[in-house]
């Protein structure tokens, strides 16, 4: 056995952490959707986690968040001269967040988190059953 | 090793293999949204044959971990996805549930065997 062997608990547990990071990015994207800025550079852009498989043996791998990157969704310019944040042209920049896409992302994250919880529950039950083998 | 083989037959190796397959299927489910991740699975029959000698009557290697690695292959997806990920949750979850039930089946075989042996020892 190698010194660092991934158990089912490691695999599902770390996958849950990764999904939680994804849920956090979705939450901040949704929280910042609709926020305004006086410049294109200052406007909020949606952030996304980049997942990467981690494993030392073929067929046994968990997942980690390699990095969190800003998405390429451009902020939208809106003409609103009465807004206190408006620039000299009377424009404001709205955060580059795709609301419906974020909602879909949230649902998918929740489902995959649940899948991992289910894996963990099954693995726990089987381990406990094996421990009670002679009873 | 020899004593446990006489006691439990193929069920010892079977339980260890079921546990390895559980980890492999859990890995697939964990990586359901990792770009370019290729799902893998252990061919249980092949792995068990390698470990125990199977129907050929030859002696197996006895190394369950090695047998599992040799019998691991990539899953062929029914539909390819744009991000190169080949995990199909429906397939993986079905295989996972099936494997869990079969793990329990092996456990009950072992349990029955233990009961029989205990009865013989106690002479009741």
The number of helical runs of chain A is 2
What's the helix count of chain B? Answer: 5
Helix content of chain A: 40-55%
Average pLDDT, all residues of chain B: 88
Strands side by side in the biggest sheet of chain B: 1-2
Quick check: average pLDDT of chain A? 90
Helix-strand category of chain A: alpha+beta
Keywords, separated by commas or semicolons:
heterodimer; A: alpha+beta; two-stranded antiparallel sheet; 5 strands; 43% helix; 24% strand; elongated; B: mainly alpha; two-stranded antiparallel ribbon
How are the SSEs ordered, and which strands pair?
The complex is a heterodimer of chains A (135) and B (124).
Chain A: H1 8-32, E1 36-37, E2 47-57, E3 60-70, E4 76-79, E5 91-94, H2 99-131
Antiparallel strand pairs in A: 1-5, 2-3, 4-5
Chain B: H1 2-8, H2 11-30, E1 40-42, H3 44-52, H4 64-70, E2 72-74, H5 89-122
Antiparallel strand pairs in B: 1-2
Helix pairs in contact in B: 2-3, 2-5, 3-4
What features would you describe in this structure?
The complex is a heterodimer of chains A (135) and B (124). Chain A is an alpha+beta fold and 135 residues long. The two termini of chain A are 29 Å apart. In chain A, the strands form two sheets. In chain A, strands 1-5-4 form a three-stranded antiparallel sheet, with no helix packed on it. Chain A has a two-stranded antiparallel sheet with strand order 2-3. Chain A has helices at 8-32, 99-131; strands at residues 36-37, 47-57, 60-70, 76-79, 91-94. In chain A, strand 2 and strand 3 (60-70) form a beta hairpin. A two-stranded antiparallel ribbon of chain B has the order 1-2. Chain B has helices at residues 2-8, 11-30, 44-52, 64-70, 89-122; strands at residues 40-42, 72-74. With 124 residues, chain B is mainly alpha-helical. Chain B is 62% helix and 5% strand. In chain B, helix 2 (11-30) packs antiparallel against helix 3. The chains are: A alpha+beta (135), B mainly alpha (124). The A-B interface holds A 1, 6-8, 11-12, 14-15, 22, 51-53, 55, 57-63, 108, 112, 115-116, 119, 122-123, 126, 129-130, 133-134 and B 15, 19, 22-24, 26-27, 29-35, 37, 40-42, 65, 68-69, 72, 89, 93, 96, 100, 103-104, 107, 110-111, 114, 118.
